[in-house]
Write a structure and sequence with these properties.
Shape: globular
Structural class: mainly alpha
Strand content: under 5%
Oligomer: single chain
Radius of gyration: 21 Å
Length: 448
């Protein structure tokens, strides 16, 4: 019988089952979320903002994408509160429902030509629903894996739900690449909706899987000792504000890198380099597939070498690689393979060393009773400036640089330096026991 006091007593098979369930659930969530981002510069700008200049329409579409990122920290606070008070599992099921329904309804939404200004307004509302869903989901999915894992394996198993991000992106870009191959104008005339409507099937699968996983032993221990925080967010800000600030600084390069190579670069390749849309989509899809295999590798490496060493080095290298990556793309002469390699190396491989360890890194910053609130707020609030603003900033920098990407590369280098400094300012936690609580009358058990 598994002890609720010590997560390390879970069998390897049980931990893998929980981690795999987290990975599948996050894949579905991020497919829904990234599908919107992928469509923003390809079709949503034309169907929902048709009266604007193409570049302005693209920026407006990216702005509605930003709204999803703004909704995420508010959602993270709400779901973090209830996740720390009621449990991780309940919140995971609820967030998946919200995300899936919002995405499905986008597939049914009339365009600007049909209902005028109500089209972008309703699109905005549904994008907020997506932000609410993913804002509460990530923290719970990560904790289901990390809090079930023993010391020395948290980086590895914590990286499994991280796989959901590149897997979701690969599914989203792959789906769009497939639909754009339809003959004539079938894609623009309505078949683009299939990518959103299929979300309903994925959500049903995800809920079925999540109903079968158990609550985390760490949270069960807090319940058993009656030390559940009454207002987790207030306790978080009162006792962990330094970790919150440094965590958001670490997250900066992660969000910027993902949205440069996973979102902005599609529009850059199509509109600036004048290459086929399919080339851009397949390049990002290929990088995402490569990333799936490297994320657990670097998660495991962070268990051996330490979180700050692996994450800090990768953050600096990711910033530096922006210059050769954009130089290679801009001088590729239309060679799709070269462009793909310029994305795969910094995004599919090096970025994985940033994203793989980040789940365990953030989880280890906070005690159990505020951990859901802590990692959700750090990840989602920083997403406003690290992720949501990035495509808009990159588009503006590209215009300011007369179509040349060097201002974008410089921005990434500065962000990489900021994240590296923040990572090395944190205490190393890879080989330490996770903190159960610093404010309880009952002594914590090891591993809680």
């Amino acid at each position: 019988m598994t002890s609720v006091a010590n997560p390390s007593l879970l069998s390897e098979a049980e931990i893998r089952k929980v981690a795999l369930a987290s990975a599948i659930g996050t894949t579905i969530e991020w497919y829904d979320f990234f599908l919107y981002n992928t469509f923003s510069a390809l079709i949503l700008n034309k169907l929902f903002f048709p009266s604007f200049d193409p570049l302005v329409g693209t920026m407006l579409a990216f702005t509605t994408a930003l709204v999803g990122f703004i909704a995420r920290p508010l959602s993270g606070i709400v779901f973090g509160h209830f996740g720390d008070r009621l449990g991780r599992k309940k919140m995971l099921i609820l967030t998946l429902l919200i995300m899936g329904i919002g995405t499905f309804l986008i597939g049914l939404l009339p365009t600007y030509d049909a209902i005028g200004v109500w089209a972008p307004i309703l699109l905005l509302v549904l994008r907020i629903c997506q932000g609410v869903g993913v804002g509460g989901e990530w923290g719970g999915a990560v904790l289901m894996a990390v809090e079930h894992s023993p010391t020395g394996r948290r980086g590895f198993y914590g990286s499994w739900p991280q796989i959901g991000v590149p897997a979701g992106l690969a599914l989203a870009t792959g789906m769009v690449a497939l639909l754009t191959q339809l003959p004539g104008d079938m894609f623009f005339q309505g078949w683009w909706r299939v990518a959103f409507l299929i979300s309903l099937v994925l959500v049903i699968i995800g809920i079925y899987i999540r109903l079968k996983i158990m609550e985390t032993p760490a949270f069960q221990r807090v319940q058993a000792t009656q030390t559940v925080s009454s207002v987790p967010f207030l306790d978080l800000m009162r006792h962990h504000w330094k970790q919150v600030l440094l965590g958001m600084g670490c997250r900066y390069i992660e969000g910027v890198t993902f949205n440069i190579y996973g979102v902005f670069v599609i529009a850059y390749i199509v509109t600036t380099l004048k290459m086929p849309r399919t080339t851009a989509l397949l390049a990002v899809t290929a990088a995402s597939i490569v990333m799936i295999f490297f994320i657990p590798v670097f998660g495991r490496l962070s268990d051996r070498l330490g979180r700050k060493r692996v994450f800090g080095f990768a953050a600096a290298l990711t910033g530096l690689l922006a210059f050769p990556a954009f130089w290679t793309m801009s001088t590729a002469g239309g060679n799709g393979l070269v462009v793909a390699l310029a994305i795969i190396i910094p995004f599919g491989i090096v970025y994985a060393a940033v994203y793989g360890p980040i789940a365990a890194l953030f989880s280890e910053l906070f005690e159990t009773r505020v951990r859901y609130s802590g990692i959700s707020f750090v990840y989602q609030f920083s997403g406003i400036f690290a992720s949501g603003l990035t495509p808009i900033i990159a588009t503006a920098l590209l215009k300011e640089g007369d179509g040349q990407p060097w201002l974008i590369a410089g921005y990434m280098l500065i962000v990489g330096c900021i994240s590296t400094i923040c990572a090395y300012a944190l205490k190393e936690t890879a080989h330490a026991e996770m903190i159960a609580s610093t404010r309880r009358s009952v002594a914590p058990s090891p591993g809680d």
